[in-house]
Structure formats: structure tokens, C-alpha cells
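REQUEST FORM: STRUCTURE PREDICTION
Request ID: SP-0412
Submitted by: Lab K.M.
Chain count: 1
Length (residues): 246
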Amino acid sequence: MISISSNLNIMIKAVEKASKSVIRDFGEIENLQVSKKGPRDFVTKTDKRVENIIIEELSKTKKKYSFLSEEIGRIKNQDEDNIWIIDPIDGTTNFLHGIPHFAICIALQSKKEIVSGLIFDPIKDEMFFAEKNKGSYLNNQRLRVSKKNILDDCLFSSNHEGMKFSNFNMRYTGCVALDLAYVAAGRFDGFFQNDINLWNVAAGSLMIQEAGGVVNDVNKLKNNAINIRASNDAISDKMLRELENF
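STATUS: Completed
RESULT:
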């Protein structure tokens, strides 16, 4: 039986509650594609509703913790050393077009260090989570990064800029959080992207490290314009050399 902290337990309950709204709204997207207004406003409302549910749930037991979230920005409460970092729906463009590849993300930053991370794919019912010094898990199964050590044998993910830059075997899935979770799970071997926000990478960066991978030190970077590099340990140096000019 995996032992998890009270904070992670709260995070899990929050995303489970929020995911009900996400799954229901995702089911409506196909009908909205033919409406005059279109689905974009609908998805924006879903994003904000999910954010509100998560903030409300987390605040029930941790009333003093602060927040940093994609939609609402920063909420400074009495405890500024502990900050919930939230991305209500990472992969909103996928959601918008009815593509079932997106995630709800929460991380906890304590004294400027990410100590807990959760990425939940509500459509596939895959709950990725990690805590500092306790490992990474997918639905209670321990995660390990891949062991591949030859770049040509590896599969990487990035955004469209990374796709154009690199000669790697690449995928562009449209969901950074799941890309990082997949590196932790050994499905991808590496991930890189520039000018990204903390709420996109906070949970996943911890997850990869706790699964035995390597990530440049996101804890020391600001809330946006982050250039992230993540991979298994065997290819890290090789990948970084290839990305020197990216």
C-alpha cells in the first residue's frame, strides 16, 4: 500500500471532483462544433469552472495556502511559503476540438521547491502523481523512466518549434503535462520546450525526477518563459548537446 501525504490526498480528491465537470463538458463539444457561437467560449467556462472547483476544494483544509493558477493568476494568502500551482485543463486546444488528450494538473510548491505533483487524464482515467523522495506513480504502480541510451532509438516530444528544430524522432501531442508524465512513465524518452509556464511543468518535472530522470532546475526559474529540458539519465547529456542552439 502506497503511503501518501495529506496534501496529496487533498489534491487527488480535488481533481476527482473537478474531472466530473470536465468529462461532462467534453461530451458536449461535438454538439457545439456546429453551433453559431462555437465551442471556444464553452471551453473557457469549463477551464474557469474547473479552476474554481479545485481552489475551493484545496482551500477547505488548507485555508492559508496561496495559489498560482493559469486563469486567475496569483492569490496571496497568509501562507506564501506554500503555493498550490494549478493548470485547470492543460491541452485546451485538444479539448476544444474533441481530441481526448488533456489533463488537470496540480503541484505544491513549498519554500520555492516543488514537493508534490499530480497530473490526471480524466478520459483515460490515468492518475500520475509524485512526492519528493517518495517516487512517481501511475494509478498506484511505480514509474521509471526509460533506459534507452541511443538517441535514434528514442522518442521525444515538444511543441511545433521543437519539431522544426530537431532531427529527433518527434511527437507533438498538444499537452505538455502528459508529455512530461509520459517521460516519467518511459513512454517518451525526452521532452524539451522553450517559453513555457510553471503551471505546465511543475508537477511533471517532479514526476520525472522521482522516476529517475533528469530535469533542468525548474525550482530556480521564474513563473513563465521557462526553457525546460527533461529526459532519462542515459541520454541527458547527448540531448542537451543537440539542443545547445535551441
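NOTES: The longest strand covers residues 79-90.
Reviewed by: T.R.
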